Amino acid sequence: MAPQLDSFFKQVDAMSESFIDRLSKAVAIPSVSAMDEHRPDVFKMGEFMASELRNLGAEVTLHPLGKQPHKEHLELPPVVTARYGSDPSKRTVLVYGHYDVQPALMEDGWATKPFKLTVDESSGRMYGRGSTDDKGPVLGWLNAIEAHKKAGVEFPVNLLMCFEGMEEYGSEGLDEFIMREAKGFFKDADAVCISDNYWLGTEKPCLTYGLRGCNYYSLEVTGPGADLHSGVFGGTAHEPMTDLVRIMSSLVDPDGKILIDGIDEMVAPITDQEKALYKDIAFTMDNLYESLGSKTALFDDKARTLMGRWRFPSLSLHGIEGAFSAPGAKTVIPAKVIGKFSIRTVPDMESEAVTAAVQKHVDKVFAGLKSKNKCTLKLQHDGKWWVASPNHWNFTAAAKAVEHVWGVKPDLTREGGSIPVTLTFEEATGKNVLLLPMGSSTDGAHSINEKLDRRNYIEGIKLLGAYLHYVAEEPMREG
Ligand SMILES: C[C@H](N)C(=O)N[C@@H](Cc1c[nH]cn1)C(=O)O
Ligand SMILES: [Zn+2]
Ligand SMILES: [Zn+2]
């Protein structure tokens, strides 16, 4: 295999500028799934993926998913599936990624235009929304195909690709599609690989075997018929924002402790075996400070910090729709405000039980306010946590590829973020799922100035290709 991989690696290096150009074109399409006005761009990005894949010789299908639930004026973007190769003597690997991105506005504080890939030649940092989450990794698979073709190296496996456009909005419609296609498009898969998370630091690669789930809520408080003048009506009416802020501040304390009764009891106890795992992970508090961009950590020690990210639930307050947020001093009483918060869930939390506990808490606190306003809690979307076995040939193949490309053994990690369909793929295919990250801890996914380091992108393309070669070699045994 070594000469084949050498030729493939040389080709990736030779094509690196054209791979960066492909990423620039993708970043330039603002495929923000959470903003109605960007829905045509999400479709455009789906078309871009389909056209790039067709040019590489893959069999591509765009699957419409129908109307968006609760937003029937919007069509869901298509799932793009593609097959590259159908040789029965080869293994078949299914890869998944998403072509939608989080919102990004210049006024959020970006130093460069979010939808223009800006390469800082001195640091190798490539800034742009979606560069690391998840356009860089998704294009990594396409680039790996192209480099094999150009280098004249036989592609080692049959590749099934599944790219969606709603991941950042709860993967609407995808679970049903995957279950429908379990015995169709996905039936040949021998293993699944997802590249959509990050290293723990900036130097050591990792393989990931767990994710937290995510229950995302909106909490609406309404009262007056329209926004009011606070001079005229302040002191005469129950104010929705006052109620909302009280309820939101009752959910979690400043140390991150969730204050909702019953949540702690749902969390699986920590075992001694698990405690021992944390000490060997290459992660320091300085890694955290670097990726936080500050020293505002909740805990001073590594193990508690990793547990806080991986295996305990957390509750984050995200924002308030309808609140006055512009510069200046508008003296308004907003008539309707919608608070947004989410709970990252872990084993053994069940979505329905979490929502029941949240509803009970909100009802209790709101009743205590004795307000005449109306308060409504809604679960916007939920995605389940996932923990898999890393003792499977899929992980062994990936570990060999990491050692080959990066010269070190990868850490085995869990991820604090969520990829809701991971569990669905596991259940639909009955096969092992591996998370193989490309980007690093300082990439700032979901934040301002999101970036992917040039080194992680180019070596990441080599890693994805090498992984497929090692998969082709691994003896078939379930782990
Ligand atoms: C880890 C992955 N790249 C990611 O960013 N996932 C999102 C998915 C999401 C959106 N709403 C709920 N889950 C995340 O973890 O926020
Ligand atoms: Zn994301
Ligand atoms: Zn992502």
From TrEMBL:
<feature type="binding site">
    <location>
        <position position="229"/>
    </location>
    <ligand>
        <name>substrate</name>
    </ligand>
</feature>
<feature type="domain" description="Peptidase M20 dimerisation">
    <location>
        <begin position="218"/>
        <end position="365"/>
    </location>
</feature>
<dbReference type="GO" id="GO:0046872">
    <property type="term" value="F:metal ion binding"/>
</dbReference>
<feature type="active site" description="Proton acceptor">
    <location>
        <position position="167"/>
    </location>
</feature>
<keyword id="KW-0378">Hydrolase</keyword>
<feature type="active site">
    <location>
        <position position="100"/>
    </location>
</feature>
<keyword id="KW-0479">Metal-binding</keyword>
<comment type="similarity">
    <text>Belongs to the peptidase M20A family.</text>
</comment>
<feature type="binding site" description="in other chain">
    <location>
        <position position="446"/>
    </location>
    <ligand>
        <name>substrate</name>
    </ligand>
</feature>
<dbReference type="InterPro" id="IPR001261">
    <property type="entry name" value="ArgE/DapE_CS"/>
</dbReference>
<dbReference type="GO" id="GO:0070573">
    <property type="term" value="F:metallodipeptidase activity"/>
</dbReference>
<feature type="binding site" description="in other chain">
    <location>
        <position position="344"/>
    </location>
    <ligand>
        <name>substrate</name>
    </ligand>
</feature>
<feature type="binding site" description="in other chain">
    <location>
        <position position="418"/>
    </location>
    <ligand>
        <name>substrate</name>
    </ligand>
</feature>
<dbReference type="InterPro" id="IPR002933">
    <property type="entry name" value="Peptidase_M20"/>
</dbReference>
<protein>
    <recommendedName>
        <fullName>Peptidase M20 dimerisation domain-containing protein</fullName>
    </recommendedName>
</protein>
<feature type="binding site">
    <location>
        <position position="331"/>
    </location>
    <ligand>
        <name>substrate</name>
    </ligand>
</feature>
<feature type="binding site">
    <location>
        <position position="168"/>
    </location>
    <ligand>
        <name>Mn(2+) 1</name>
    </ligand>
</feature>
<dbReference type="Pfam" id="PF01546">
    <property type="entry name" value="Peptidase_M20"/>
</dbReference>
<feature type="binding site">
    <location>
        <position position="98"/>
    </location>
    <ligand>
        <name>Mn(2+) 2</name>
    </ligand>
</feature>
<dbReference type="Pfam" id="PF07687">
    <property type="entry name" value="M20_dimer"/>
</dbReference>
<feature type="binding site">
    <location>
        <position position="133"/>
    </location>
    <ligand>
        <name>Mn(2+) 1</name>
    </ligand>
</feature>
<feature type="binding site" description="in other chain">
    <location>
        <position position="196"/>
    </location>
    <ligand>
        <name>substrate</name>
    </ligand>
</feature>
<feature type="binding site">
    <location>
        <position position="196"/>
    </location>
    <ligand>
        <name>Mn(2+) 2</name>
    </ligand>
</feature>
<dbReference type="GO" id="GO:0006508">
    <property type="term" value="P:proteolysis"/>
</dbReference>
<dbReference type="InterPro" id="IPR017153">
    <property type="entry name" value="CNDP/DUG1"/>
</dbReference>
<dbReference type="InterPro" id="IPR011650">
    <property type="entry name" value="Peptidase_M20_dimer"/>
</dbReference>
<keyword id="KW-0645">Protease</keyword>
<feature type="binding site">
    <location>
        <position position="446"/>
    </location>
    <ligand>
        <name>Mn(2+) 1</name>
    </ligand>
</feature>
<dbReference type="InterPro" id="IPR051458">
    <property type="entry name" value="Cyt/Met_Dipeptidase"/>
</dbReference>
<feature type="site" description="Important for catalytic activity">
    <location>
        <position position="229"/>
    </location>
</feature>
<feature type="binding site">
    <location>
        <position position="133"/>
    </location>
    <ligand>
        <name>Mn(2+) 2</name>
    </ligand>
</feature>
<keyword id="KW-0464">Manganese</keyword>
<keyword id="KW-0482">Metalloprotease</keyword>
